[in-house]
């Protein structure tokens, strides 16, 4: 079906580098619908020259943008927020078409993305420094907060609106300028958002976007890594890529925010409200078809309630409706591409070969299209299986039985990753013990939906560092300047 928008100009189909333009070499690449693998749009396939031109534009725009009063920057961001909400249907259609999530989720993501723009618009006027009590008379000591400079944002495909908003809004709020490379699978939503930012009054050169295919992405990003004018990299994606960015940033000592892979545990203790735990797992696991970095990847259920929990969960998973975004009743859409499907099926085969049992699902739904996988429940999972060691990034729930609190804490922490963790228990003392013991950046206690614009989002260990959202996310785009003024005595 053709993609029909109320505003055709929300698909500009070009890079924004001070102005809308084609790639320097004139190349383009196709954007496909994951529900059908059919091409429905194309965008510039940029290279090093385009990446360099984007930094030129951002660097030139930085002095005037940082000098603009914070209140005026805030007003521009508020207009951007209003435009995003006013065009929620069009943006939701773009998200669903290029990413695959159901239309209701696409619209919901737009509201979620706009909440970050609104939050950081309000915080723009609150980037306060400190007055430090002087140790001697006649001196004033200050700690001032200043924008770091040009920021390079590299965003993922799973939340093409929310991730660009969560990175760009705080950067613009504090006076940074931005160059951005959206994921090659989902460039259209990002281009539409930047088009609306331009309409909201973001000056030319302040926000630049460069699209590139998977093959040419390293050329674009390496150009930014080598450019000393780029003072910060913010990236959401895999841990191996995050490590590459960290290594390559060392030569110019860029500031980094890295939101990387996860392997989230979801623990159900025998004193939990099982219905609430099932509901929390459904919310946390099946959002975006399981394609989120904070999805529960390993589910641990205490022996006394294991069978009852599995029965309740199996009924809920079996009732999920799988289909394209165009179907109003779809709850699970296609996976992003064939590589994602292959990984999921590999994890399922490996688990079964190692002794796990499929209770629900377990197959590719080829009758719906090339990239559909049935929501799946596995029991008898253990730490030797690929689904326990790697992010599956799909609608697969592997359940492991456990006996003691100490045993499950050790298992939950037995991973190099530390992004999110969840557990359900009605024992308040246990709640704080387990919260303290879990090695992760986010903990959901009797709650499956964690993210909010006012909360810090980020991980520990190999899940990265830096925070997005909240006042802590604002600080990641600022540096401190200490000022000491003397000779003030009479």
UniProtKB/TrEMBL annotation:
InterPro entries: Ald_DH/histidinol_DH, Ald_DH_C, Ald_DH_CS_CYS, Ald_DH_CS_GLU, Ald_DH_N, Aldehyde_DH_dom, Aldehyde_DH_Superfamily
Coiled coil: none
Active-site residues, record numbering mapped to chain: 259
SUPFAM superfamilies: ALDH-like (SSF53720)
UniProt cross-references to Gene3D superfamilies, sorted A to Z: Aldehyde Dehydrogenase, Chain A, domain 1, Aldehyde Dehydrogenase, Chain A, domain 2
Leader sequence residues: none
UniProt keyword terms in alphabetical order: Oxidoreductase
Ranges for domain Aldehyde dehydrogenase: 20-483
A UniProt-annotated Pfam family: Aldedh
Family: Belongs to the aldehyde dehydrogenase family.
Name by which UniProt lists this protein: NAD-dependent succinate-semialdehyde dehydrogenase
Organism: Pseudaquabacterium terrae
